[in-house]
Specification:
This protein has helices spanning 22-36, 53-62, 79-97, 109-120, 143-153, 162-170, 184-198, 200-209, 233-245, 260-270, 284-293, 302-311, 325-330, 340-352, 354-360, 372-381, and strands at residues 13-19, 41-47, 68-69, 101-105, 125-128, 156-159, 178-180, 218-223, 250-255, 276-279, 296-299, 315-317, 333-335. It is α/β, with parallel strands linked by helices. The strands form two sheets. Strands 3-2-1-4-5-6-7 form a seven-stranded parallel sheet, sandwiched between helices. The longest helix has 19 residues, at 79-97. The protein binds uridine-diphosphate-N-acetylglucosamine (UD1) and uridine-5'-diphosphate. Uridine-5'-diphosphate (UDP) binds at residues 22-23, 26, 223, 225, 255, 281-282, 284, 287, 301-304, 307. Residues 37-380 form the UDP-N-acetylglucosamine 2-epimerase domain. Its EC number is 5.1.3.14. GO terms for molecular function: UDP-N-acetylglucosamine 2-epimerase activity. It catalyses: UDP-N-acetyl-alpha-D-glucosamine = UDP-N-acetyl-alpha-D-mannosamine.
Length: 383
């Protein structure tokens, strides 16, 4: 008997990937683009647009299709606004899309509320970048709790590192529900980093875009946006930058997050300071270019903490703790908090002491090998 072409094949699984902010967009991109091309899945993408312009930059860079857009961002939104709008918005998306699997990434309120919505509809959740823990519910706030809630809901935990897996095991998650995949941030990084390295025209474009940077000085790249740093932390970071800038041998470039709690403070403290360039949030490729050109990175960002070690750039983490201890253990990242003196002392040491710098600037890749997306889809295709 002649076999029909579909015989022996499982029906396509309906996969709904939900994301809302810049880092989720960047980290979902490699999984989403591979899933869209994978025969085991019927893939749709829902953006909550918790971020609007910063997310649209990612959509335009990656060319990902958007099947549902909740368009929830409002200026100065609160955690209540985001939670409520995502949860309610997901109700009708889930009714319409009828997914077999809802996939979320990381620890944002979008990811938490979308997972909760899937739980209310009894749809299994796959969690990318599962298991990171600071073990302090107040920091990162509210991300530590968001990630734990998603962890309690998820059926599949895609842990980026062995340490993340151990955190999940310690919480009693079944071993066979956890897969160590590496972090998809590295899949994204390798994809676009290759583009920058191999395209002379693009490199020339980037150099022209940043022609205001004095290349004879050491480039210090800064980002900051954590909510637990709103209560004076951002201000102290700015005070440290002001002193650092006065050295004269550094060029400080600070793409300022559009959150008004960040933007207003940074502008008030650092506008018109020589050697400090306050610029808009950069698209991913220019930001990657800046990371590659930097001497030192100062940040409280999760994603940048993961990218810098892979690029061999020392990173000072301006937080009291981190749920990404692998970079610190590898020696490329150092926790400096937001104390002005500690930031200054550590940065000055790296700027002045060549061997201290070299010790930190070893290229390490604790976060993955660029194949995380492949492993995630392979696992789900047999689920
Ligand atoms: C959010 C996430 C945080 C993540 C960060 C990445 C939560 C609670 N917070 O923090 O985990 O690390 O994104 O950047 O999920 N805004 C714009 N345009 C944009 C994006 C934001 O103008 O494209 C402004 C708006 O005024 C908005 C505000 O920033 O209301 C805050 O955005 P929100 O997503 O609530 O918080 P983030 O600080 O960006
Ligand atoms: N990033 C970017 N443009 C910028 C600053 C950061 O594209 O101006 C990228 C960065 O390379 C990383 C991600 O955004 O991949 C990190 O996002 P963010 O710091 O907003 O969030 P977090 O990672 O802390 O959740």
């Amino acid at each position: 008997m002649q076999k029909s072409s579909n015989e022996g094949r499982l029906p396509k699984r309906r996969l709904l990937i939900v994301f809302g902010t810049r880092p989720e967009g960047l980290k979902c991109f490699p999984v989403a683009s591979a899933a869209l091309a994978h025969e085991a899945f019927h893939t749709e993408i829902c953006v909550t647009a918790q971020h609007r312009d910063m997310l649209d930059q990612i959509i335009s860079l990656t060319g990902l299709p958007v099947h549902y857009d909740l368009d929830i961002m409002r200026p100065g939104q609160t955690l209540f606004d985001v939670s409520e709008r995502v949860l309610k918005g997901m109700e009708s998306v889930l009714e319409h899309a009828r997914p077999d699997i809802v996939m979320v990434q990381g620890d944002t309120t979008t990811a938490m509320a979308a997972a909760l919505a899937a739980f209310y509809k009894r749809i299994p959740v796959a969690h990318i970048e599962a298991g990171l823990r600071s073990h302090n519910i107040d920091s990162p706030f509210p991300e530590e709790l968001n990630r734990k809630i998603i962890g309690d809901i998820a059926k599949w935990h895609f842990a980026p590192t062995a340490e993340a897996r151990n955190n999940l095991l310690a919480e009693g998650k079944p071993a066979d529900s956890i897969l160590v995949t590496g972090n998809t941030v590295i899949d994204t990084l390798l994809h676009f980093s290759g583009m920058l390295d191999n395209d002379d025209l693009m490199s020339a474009e980037m150099a022209a875009r940043f022609s205001f940077i004095d290349v004879s000085k050491k480039l210090v790249l800064v980002t900051g946006h954590r909510r637990e740093n709103f209560d004076g932390g951002i201000e102290r970071i700015c005070k440290a930058l002001k002193v650092l800038a006065a050295r004269g041998d550094v060029s400080i470039v600070f793409p300022v997050h559009p959150n008004p709690n960040v933007r207003n403070v940074v502008r008030a403290e650092l506008a018109d300071i020589p050697n400090v360039h306050l610029i808009d949030p950069q698209e991913y490729l220019p930001f990657l270019y800046l990371q590659k050109k930097s001497y030192l990175v100062l940040t409280d960002s999760g994603g940048v903490q993961e990218e810098a070690p892979s690029l061999g750039k020392p990173v000072l983490v301006m937080r009291e703790n981190t749920e990404r201890p692998e970079g610190v253990a590898a020696g490329t990242a150092r926790l400096v908090g937001t104390d002005v003196d500690v930031i200054l002392r550590t940065a000055t040491n790296l700027l002045d002491d060549e061997s201290a710098y070299r010790n930190m600037a070893e290229r390490h890749n604790p976060y993955g090998d660029g194949k995380a997306s492949q492993r995630i889809l392979e696992e789900l295709s047999h689920a």
